[in-house]
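Minutes, project check-in

Agenda point 3 was the complex the collaborators sent over. CS summarized: two entities, 569 residues total, and the question is how they sit relative to each other. Sequences were read into the notes so everyone works from the same version.
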Amino acid sequence: MSSETNLPTRQRRVNSNFITEIIDEDLRQRRYAKIVTRFPPEPNGYLHIGHAKSICLNFGLALDYGGECNLRFDDTNPETESIEYVDAAKRDVQWLGVQWARELYASDYFERLYEFAVQLITDGKAYVDSLSDEEISEYRGTVTQPGKPSPYRDRSVEENLELFRHMRDGGFPDGAHVLRAKIDLASRNMKLRDPVLYRIVHAPHYHAGDAWCIYPLYDFAHPLSDAIEGISHSICTLEFENNRAIYDWLLENLRGKCGLPHAPRPYQYEFARLNLDYTVLSKRKLIKLVDGRHVQGWDDPRLPTLSGVRRRGVTPEAIREFCYRIGVAKTNSRVDLGIFEAAVRDDLNHRAPRVLAVLRPLKVVLTNYPGGKVEQLEAPYWPHDVPKEGWRQVPFSRELYIERDDFMEHPPKGFHRLVPGGHVRLRHAYVIRCDEVVKNASGEIAELHCTYDPDTIGKNPAGGAPKGTIHWVCAPHAVKAEVRLYDRLFGVADPEAGGGEFTAYLNPASLTVVEGYVEPSVLQDPPATRYQFERLGYFWQDPEDSRPGDLVFNRIVTLRDSWTKAQRK
RNA sequence: UGGGGGAUCGUCUAACGGUAGGACGACGGGCUCUGGACCCGUUAGUGGGGGUUCGAAUCCUCCUCCCCCAGCCA
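CS then shared the predicted structure for the full assembly.
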């Protein structure tokens, strides 16, 4: 299977899909000198991993085919857009590790777009309509009934030109007139029933300032922006399939005019947007979660926003790998969260040094260990299967903390951890035996009295290897830390299904905060270090809230856990 | 009831008239001072009916189901 990319499949940023096939054919036919794509966010919300799919696709194709990809802000609606979102989007795109050829704004084309509109009017292909928005809606008909022409549809070119100029000059209030394409009121495609091209909005624009009081709509601005930039392949999502007819109509009527080349021209292709289990990927719903204080901001680590997953600790490489794995197609689909988590774990497994931390401490006293003694044990950062080297010292003394879950007074079958009278290996340290369970007045387990076997560093005791190894932290040296345990944001796979308000399905346990202990070596590390807390998961310090004397860790993702899985059966 | 799209293992995705493959998962085994990782194996799919063909996921036909379209949002 030869390809125009000349790249072996494994080195491609984008798995072959229906779009790469189109590009291969276009290149074979020499329709374009090079491929040019664009990522066109509207700056009215934060980017999320659905956008990451589009970013990886558009920038990935540019890389694979030696073309280029622009970052273009599709900013034609002054009432919802702001510079905050532009800055956030740029930050997120850069963080993802892609590089745009040019940073562009549709609003920079407003003057050219105006000229295109005048050209359409001059050609008798657009007219100023003075119906109200309700009337326009009525006149448009329904999916089964054709629309009927507005009484203003046959205004003269001169009158249209005059009116349109006055629209621009500010002579009319909002909604008084619109500019419409003169296409076909009876079209089976509703989008073609004389779509509105311009509306009057007396509002300043965050980028264009107060230069305009008329603004183009997406259907007008987008294809022409593509054409201005020399885009070859304009990739968008499935819900724009019907809009493609307007896209083509505009470019066919304007190509070769107003400075646009006759050829080549861009073509639009649509792929299925990403849906991910247990979360929502729609700007409207994300805004609602943020504004409704269901989460603590756009960068809340539970959110699927790029700023959220970044703060959570997920790396851009993991996001890109995820996008590579899920592929691109036209089928509406919903991706299993497991695919995302697997990509995150695969990335972190080779990136994160292992350290010991205890989230729900249970004190262990080693009754046969000398009171004032402290040993420094050498512990490797990496397991045998990760080809990296490095060690740190971990202190060991008479009092330790272990995980409460790692001790059971009445264990079920198959429990390989500490039990009364049983042995267990302390990771990188000794084998201990539990001699006594000490309880408080209310009958809860307060601490464990154990004895250690001094001859078990690096070797097994005479009685044979214990069944389990558990993690621990030396009590007098333990570093206290707040640990934020994140779980899925919603309790159901598809919060948008089933009717009702989607916020009703929010998972009340999406955030659990515990006070735990981490081994003291982490104090020596750069704060952005990502760790595996052995047997618990991957963690890093929260970039916003963690302080040198007041550590806060986020759980990025858990480890696969075949024990609890087996327990459920 | 109109138009535009889409249907392949549980999930995502390949195949371009010639052995239905991969990833995630699940299941079983191995290894292991992490119940992690890794290794091996197994499971499991072409929505349905006709037709063309030596041969069909792929071409034709009928049907079913799903998504999108009646914003002066994108």
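Noted in discussion: Chain A has 13 helices and 25 strands.
Follow-up: revisit at the next meeting once the mutant set is ready.
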